[in-house]
Amino acid sequence: MLYVQSYIKAIRYVVSLVTFKDEKINSINYNDEFYLGLNGIKTELRVFYYKKQPAQTIIIFPGASPYAENHPGMIMLGHGLRNAGYNVFLPRIPSLKELKLEKENVDWFAHCYSELLKHDKINVTNVMVIGLSYGGATLLRASLDKRMQVHPPKSYLSYGTYYSINTALNFFLTGEISYNQKTYYIPPHEWGMIVLFYNFINTININYDQTAITKILKHRINDEEEEMTTLLNSLDDTNKQFVKKILNGKINTELKTMVKQIINNNKSLLEYLSPDLWAKKVNNKVFIIHGANDSMVPFTESILLHGQLPNSTLFISFLYEHREISSNRGILFKIKEILNMIKYFSKYFRYNK
Fold this sequence. Notes:
Blueprint: H1 2-18, E1 31-36, E2 42-48, E3 57-61, H2 72-83, E4 87-91, H3 94-97, H4 104-116, E5 127-132, H5 134-142, E6 156-159, H6 165-174, E7 176-179, E8 182-185, H7 191-200, H8 210-221, H9 225-233, H10 237-248, H11 253-265, H12 267-273, E9 286-291, H13 300-308, E10 312-317, H14 331-351
């Protein structure tokens, strides 16, 4: 019976994903609530309640995005998992909404988990957690915190995260990934360089207007096109051409040198956040999912992560990219990949029952 139920849940979930359309977001129902963040800060919390109560809980921790719980990908997952029979909680992590890559994010994750366990709809013995993109590695780091070990989740799920800061940044610089003794090229998403320089440009010495460039990158992050263009046009040609290369992801020798300086100057932080140095300490069950055509984080990062975690299950999806369904595939290929997804998620739901 459990086997059949797990497949029913998986089918409901995968069908919700593949049929999801951004234009239908406004018709999706959810509750906007709050939880007490660090220092007692009242922090936004979005909840997708399943129609039948009580229900198991899934907490989805975000990646670095200014859209936070309003991101279409977050809403898509929340809606899909609710359709599969779960109460789904999407907490906001303020520092990640501001795209700050810092140690405090780990503290926020562990604190948020312990606070949400106080929610009257959550059974502390029946919780699953998911971390998206950058949030996947942050969540695994937070799993080592005592606050997440008092009532540990049944499992962790990492979607599209990185394994090593060094290999992830090398992908941003070159677009190259090596797998099975072959080298592949996927054009890196410009978002990676934007976030990197937004966070760390002030940690290196360069002959450019760092203050203005940081403001321009922030406008880009917040989709403030008019403000970004106005400030960009106010710069001299040297600064303007430099920031355009960052915005467009056009990596040259100069930018590569700067990235290496960023790594050296922020070694302590980057090592703290890099799973390759501590993944073996994570003893919890971890499910790993990655899109084969991900242009933000290469799928090889999840393969490497899987190889170091003591108890993990890996699935590489050739249907999905970072969030979107790959559109350049034939119908038979898509059907095959959908069936693979259903099989994987049936194992996931069955394990967490």
